[in-house]
Design a protein that fits this description.
The protein is α/β, with parallel strands linked by helices and about 425 residues long. The protein has 12 helices and 21 strands. Helices cover about 30% and strands about 25% of the residues. It starts with a strand and ends in an 11-residue tail after the last helix. Ligand LLP binds next to helix 10 and helix 11. Belongs to the Orn/Lys/Arg decarboxylase class-II family. LysA subfamily.
Length: about 425
């Protein structure tokens, strides 16, 4: 994907729009996404894997704004969803039901019913108990539900412990050893249409070797099932492709595609991947303003108007988002490092210590990079803060795609209901 941020006359721009223009229009903090970068990302990834017969479904959880979804949908991208809410978003963005896969370890009966009524492409089932609910709902609706079993292949994704999902002790998927019996029993039931298998080993994966291990294990499982007489038509390879930064150039798409071809190619399987982060992280920034500076021990504090409720990743995963000042730094060369912290009353409300931002002053604007994935989507109103605006940039234009949700609206939600007598 092209570098979406560049400077002209010193001012940091996203595509043709100076980010300060957006700050004037919507106030800070805010998220901005480059439509061109979203489209270029999808085109690059799908261009790398499509020749190997691999379909791309965007993991909606990474950025669920319907205008972001519709950028992908218009290019023919499918979607991977994990809730009834995400299903509603994908459908609202114009994604056809038959392009949607439903993942997740805790789908409720109501969500499963809605999915079957909508006619989704596939339900990735994660437990025998869930399989029973899918079967019961499908029977009730007179349908044969398209089911894939999500496999836990017991592979370490070699990423942050909070975003690894396929070790033996993980809550996700069904242990690989239990699949053959479960698959065979399910295939006998008319209300279940056993279409194949799914796997997802974790997120922000930069070393591609774990993918090879997991997919090789899946290929073996498919062969075993077929040898036992089962039909296995589809394989969902999951998401997890990481993005570079902090000195890492990011994974090579050609290598990613080659690993797919090496492990599960040529088996007559309909393949798909479900990347979230890779498709949208780099397309987005979060812009914040310095409220105060104060001297600190080893680094000077800059207290910014964005906080852990707006961008949780540093607090939750020790993630580091590179920061660019919207105006060129005041001083080049060695200056005191800046520790960027938010206003929330928690020590973990800390974005980290940065070199080269120069001495910051109140009013300075900063862009946090790679914030297009798991940024706005994970935000909250903790400390009774606003949900901050999201803005889409396309060429020389920009528009608000989610307005600021402030305290007036939040207070509306707290209109009390009537007291109800219990017994
Ligand atoms: N498929 C399934 C079944 C998933 O659980 C996930 C992510 C994805 C696909 C997409 O993974 P991706 O390609 O984005 O890595 N909040 C964390 C990431 C959590 C990912 C959860 N599952 C973060 O900000 O790093």
């Amino acid at each position: 994907a092209p570098d979406l941020l560049h400077r002209r006359d010193g001012a940091l721009r996203m595509e043709g729009v100076p980010l300060t223009r957006i700050a004037e229009a919507v106030g800070t903090p805010f998220y901005a996404y480059s439509a061109q970068a979203l489209r270029a990302g999808y085109t690059a990834l799908s261009g790398a894997v499509a020749p190997h017969g691999v379909d791309v479904c965007f993991a909606v959880k990474a950025n669920s704004n319907i205008h972001v979804l519709s950028e992908f949908a218009r290019l023919g991208c499918g979607m991977d969803i994990v809730s009834g809410g995400e299903m509603a978003r994908a459908l609202a963005a114009g994604v056809p039901a038959e392009r949607i896969i439903f993942s997740g370890v805790g789908k409720t009966e109501a969500e499963i019913r809605a999915a079957l009524l909508a006619g989704l492409h596939q339900i990735n089932v994660e437990s025998p108990a869930e399989l029973e609910v899918v079967a019961a709902v499908a029977r009730d609706l007179g349908q044969s539900a398209p089911v894939a079993l999500r496999v836990n292949p017991d592979v370490d994704a070699l990423t942050h412990a909070k975003i690894t999902t396929a070790r033996k002790d993980s809550k996700f998927g069904i242990a690989i050893g239990e699949i053959p019996a479960l698959y065979a029993a399910a295939a006998m039931r008319p209300e279940l249409n056993m279409v194949g298998l799914a796997v997802h080993i974790g997120s922000q994966i930069l070393d591609l070797a774990p993918f090879r291990r997991a997919w090789a294990a899946m290929a073996g499982l498919v062969r075993d099932l077929r040898a036992a007489g089962q039909q296995v038509g589809r394989l969902d390879l999951g998401g997890g492709l990481g993005v570079g930064g902090d000195g890492h150039s990011g994974p090579d798409l050609a290598e990613y595609a080659r690993i797919i071809a090496d492990t599960v190619g040529g088996m007559g399987l309909a393949l798909n991947v479900e990347p979230g982060r890779w498709l949208c992280a780099r397309a987005g920034v979060m812009v914040a303003r310095v409220i105060y500076t104060k001297p600190g021990d080893g680094a000077d504090f800059a207290i910014v108007d964005a906080a852990m409720n707006d961008l949780m990743r540093p607090a939750l995963y020790d993630a580091r988002h590179a920061v660019e000042p919207l105006a060129p730094p005041r001083q080049v060369g060695a200056t005191t490092p800046c520790r960027l912290v938010g206003p929330i009353c928690e020590s973990s409300d800390d974005f980290g210590t940065y070199q080269g931002l120069g001495p910051l002053q109140a009013g300075d604007l900063l862009a946090f990079r790679d914030a297009g994935a798991y940024g706005a989507a994970m935000s909250s109103t903790y400390n009774s803060r606003d949900l901050i605006p999201e803005v889409l940039v396309d060429g020389a234009q920009f528009r608000v795609i989610r307005r600021r949700v402030g305290i007036d609206e939040a207070l509306q939600l707290e209109q009390p209901g009537p007291w109800q007598r219990a017994g």
